[in-house]
């Protein structure tokens, strides 16, 4: 019994001889040596590589690198300048031509025939001389300009115009609080169900044709150049 204990104790001492606090000192020493060797080798390789690169970059190589860099920079600058010049030289796309020349023409030929409402001077109000009201003229002018813009959108343009523009302004104009309330009882400002909106022409020259003015300005600009 005593011999067994003594033998076991001796073996344990031998197994613990190469360890300290459970760390294998031999393996640790080997790892440290390997790491040191790798660092030394890497440092030496880097030094040799740097020296080789320095020796390879001769004056002739430097000159060729400088020429290539100069050529690349010049090409980049040229491309940028060409792009700017092309942008400046490109003519601006002309604005789409108006379908109607004025709000009066639009009102006379399109709106009054399309937006038919029974104006009886009691439930809905209107004035054939709509152009006498500054508010009405401004609202109808806005409706016309929006119509000219949105008609070009073949998909949803007119739907947007009806919903966001016409359905907003026209009920206000025709309400008992609108600009036509005080004159709507006159017979000339009323109509029958299904008839176009009452209309009276404005004074001549009150609404000039914008298309003709634009053409005149274009000719003057061309003559100046």
Automatic annotation (TrEMBL):
Protein name: DUF4913 domain-containing protein
Region described as Disordered: 76-97, 184-225
Superkingdom in the source lineage: Bacteria
Bias-annotated ranges (Basic and acidic residues): 209-225
InterPro entries: DUF4913
Species whose genome carries this gene: Microlunatus endophyticus
